[in-house]
Every structure is written in C-alpha cells, then in structure tokens.
Amino acid sequence: MELEKxxxxxxxxxxxxxxxxxxxxNIVRRQYVGDEVHLRGLIExxxxxxxxxxxxxxxxxxxxLKRYRMSEEELIDTARKAAEMGFKxxxxxxxxxxxxxxxxxxxxxxxxxxFDVAVTLSVGERExxxxxxxxxxGADRYLMRIETTDKDLYHRLDxxxxxxxRHDCLMALKEIGYELGSGIMVGLPQQSVESIAEDLLYxxxxxxxMSGIGPFIPHPQTPLKDEAGxxxxxxxxxxxxxxxxxxxxxxxATTAMESLHPMGRILALQSxxxxxxxxxxxxxxxxxxxxxxxxxxxxxxxxxxxxxxxAKIMSIGxxxxxxxxxxxxxxxxxxx
Length: 336
Ligand code: SAM
Ligand code: FES
Description:
With 336 residues, the protein is α/β, with parallel strands linked by helices. The chain has one domain: TIM Barrel. 41% of the residues lie in helices and 13% in strands. A 6-stranded parallel sheet has the order 2-3-4-5-6-7. Helix 1 (5-13) packs antiparallel against helix 9 (232-245) and helix 3 (72-84) packs parallel to helix 4. It is globular. The mean pLDDT is 96. Residues 55-56, 93, 95-96, 122-124, 144-145, 147, 185, 214, 216-217, 219, 256, 291-292 line the site of S-adenosylmethionine (SAM).
C-alpha cells in the first residue's frame, strides 16, 4: 500500500483509534502471508562487542557484565539441537565479535547447513568479502537493524559508528543475494514520530524482506538508563503501519515487545506480525546476553520456550509454519 508521510504520521500518532489500525494490519497480514507463524531458533552466541552503542546492555564499556563466547563446537551443537526440535531457521546473533573471523564463520555456516535449515546471520557490520564468503558458505539471510534513519540521532547514540556505513553494509548484503532483514527501535531519546515515519519509508525503499520493530528499553548499566524508553503501543502502531506499507514481508513479534507486556508477542501477531524468534541459547548465556532489563525467558530451556510459544500461537487460531518461511516463499540457496 502507498501511504504518504503525513498519513503515516497520523496513524503513528492516533492512540484513540489504534485498535482499528491493528485490525487492518491483521487483515492485510492474513491476506498476504496467511495464518502461518514462522519460528526461528535464535542463538545468542557471544556478548562480546567492539561497539559502544549508548542504548545497548552489551556495549563495550559495560564493565559489570560477565562476557562469554561460545566455542565453534558449542554453537554448532546448539544449532543441531534446535534443528532436531523442528526449527527450520537458525538465527545466529552476537555483538560485533571479530574473533569469529571470516573462516571461522564459514566453517560454522557450512556445518549448520547440513542440518537442513535456513541460516540467518546477525553479527553486525563486517567487510564485503566476509559477507560474500558467508553467503557462499550457505548463509541465506542477514539481519541488521538500521536502528534509526535520523543520522544525527544515530551518531549520538552509536558513537564511533557511521550511519552511511551501516546503510552501505545493508546494500552490500542485498547485492550479494541475502534475504535482507532490518528494522528500528522506537522510543529512543529525542526520536520524533516524523523520524519514525521516515524510517518506515526507508525500509520500504530499500525493499527489506524482513523488518522488526523493537521498543527501546533503557538498561541500568548504560548512559541512557534514565530515559523513558518506548511503549508497546507505539511499537505496535509502528509495526502495523509497516504491514500496511509492505504487505508481504516477514515481520517478527519481537522479544522486546514481550518484555514490556506478558502477551506482547501475541498482541504483535494480532497486529501484523507473522514471525517469532524463540531463544534456543542454553544455560547462563541467556541471562548474559542482556541487551535490556526484563528480557523474557532467561531461566527457561529451549524446549520450554518452543512449547510455550507454540501453545500461545495455536490458542489464537494460528498455525506454526512448516517450511523455511522465506519472503514470498523464496530462499537464496536452493534447499532440498
Ligand atoms: N551486533 C549486531 C548488530 O549490531 O546488528 C546484532 C546484535 S544487536 C545487540 C541487536 C539489536 O538489539 C540491535 O540492533 C538493537 O536494535 C537491539 N537493542 C540493543 N539495545 C536495546 C535496548 N536497550 N532496547 C531494545 N533493543 C535493543
Ligand atoms: Fe554491540 Fe550492542 S553495542 S551489540
């Protein structure tokens, strides 16, 4: 659907009639991507990061955080167990931890592809040749949020980083052939509704295959600890407008939404979302990958999370996707 910026701003600001917006997004979701909810098993494999994003709990300068890095074997084993549990996509996410070199990641991707799963990487900004090598090793998708398209805001919040470079990385990923996932946070300090509207138009313009909206949740061990943060309602309105703008993309019900409300992901699935990314990381690592406080499921097991979200999905009359769940049924690499 084409929407003018002024109309997007109106929809994002209209709390009074937000239920109509959610209903509309739910109808469009059903019409374009159906009732299947695609599950992606999320492995948070390292909380070591070279960056210092002001909002992020695993930022370099958070000296109170115990750091961890899974070994290659541990990571592959976690993925194998997730595949055995029935996940058809494995998402590997970490801080920007360059210990995972081009070659190490290639080996990991090749090993995990043997489990007959789609592989998504989310390890931040790297060189073109890294992205290319990982794609050639079998990685199907890449997830990297642009966070905001307000460049001044971006540079204030991500010191030492360049908005243009992040954008260039997204373009490189697309050119190489990845299914491209991106997204933003809402409720950042000094982020306007106009700016969120521009973010949505940007995501449409770069033709993302997948896009997530996360409410910003202030972390007590970051410089933004006293900020207000985003609300579930604003995040849902943003997600619902995104569904209207890009009717057939994959949209996750994000973990941050559920961290603000016990039914956050279900509410999201009923206002435009069609993907959930249950955490399949094991043990203590779940707690240590603390991007924001109140993160859900930190004491649960992978199996518990899968069963729990599966039951919730079925309770609202939706079904778990049986396939790889690529955008419009496509996947960059042919799967058997
Ligand atoms: N390093 C990779 C990257 O930069 O794309 C992936 C990991 S990064 C921690 C994943 C996402 O967490 C970020 O893109 C950001 O949107 C989100 N995030 C970080 N801190 C957050 C916070 N305090 N509240 C909500 N989301 C947060
Ligand atoms: Fe590195 Fe957040 S500061 S992942």
